[in-house]
Design a protein that fits this description.
5 helices; Maf protein; alpha/beta; globular
Length: 208
């Protein structure tokens, strides 16, 4: 695999993918690097897997290269799985991280601490022209806080404390976060797949 396209324009995601995959892929690019192409994939799926497949397969068909797309989100038990697949736009359009997590905190205002369990989930879909799409899933369990804390993350990181820790995901260092995140666990499964295929290239570059 000479080049892998990460189907995202989110700089935070690109940085995470780059840090975790830099030893396994020769070149990692984002959709920003393919700005001359038209990438408007409507996420009409009802599950994380369906949405990841839609993005990966449609973009792989357009550019005729391997593409990995993720659909990630926050699943909160007390909110019957919300925000779920609507995590990125939970508070409406245009999308805004602060608006999203503040809506969660409002919805959970009267939820006691023992019932504030949640998990992040990441489903990766790897699509390539003429090949069957493959999926890799990772989760990170934890609880929702009563107020935001930390500046190192993005999305819902400021209100999520991972299991076994006392700080929010946004208050942890990048190294710690990258070793426990839902995306980390999904990418580790993807790495195992690459290694099983004999694809383990030493050098790597990635662009934000």
């Amino acid at each position: 695999m000479n080049e892998l396209i990460i189907a995202t324009k989110n700089k935070g995601k690109v940085r995470e993918f780059g840090r975790l995959l830099h030893k396994d892929i020769n070149k990692i690019s984002s959709l920003v690097d393919k700005s001359g192409k038209h990438f408007d994939v409507e996420e009409t799926g009802t599950t994380f897997e369906e949405n990841a497949r839609l993005k990966a397969e449609q973009i792989a068909e357009i550019i005729q290269q391997p593409v990995i797309a993720d659909d990630s989100g926050l699943v909160i038990d007390a909110l019957n799985g919300e925000p779920g697949i609507y995590s990125a736009r939970y508070a409406g359009e245009p999308t805004n991280d602060v608006d999203n997590y503040e809506k969660v905190l409002r919805e959970m205002k009267n939820i006691p601490s023992e019932k504030r369990t949640a998990h992040f989930i990441c489903v990766l879909a790897l699509a390539a022209p003429g090949e069957e799409t493959k999926f890799f899933t990772g989760k990170c369990h934890g609880v929702i806080t009563n107020s935001p804390s930390g500046t190192n993350g993005f999305g819902y990181d400021p209100i999520f404390i991972p299991k076994g820790y006392e700080q929010t995901m946004a208050a942890l260092s990048a190294d710690v976060k990258n070793s426990i995140s839902h995306r980390y666990h999904a990418i580790k499964k993807f790495q195992q797949y690459l290694h099983s295929k004999g694809e383990n290239i030493e050098s790597s570059t990635y662009n934000e």
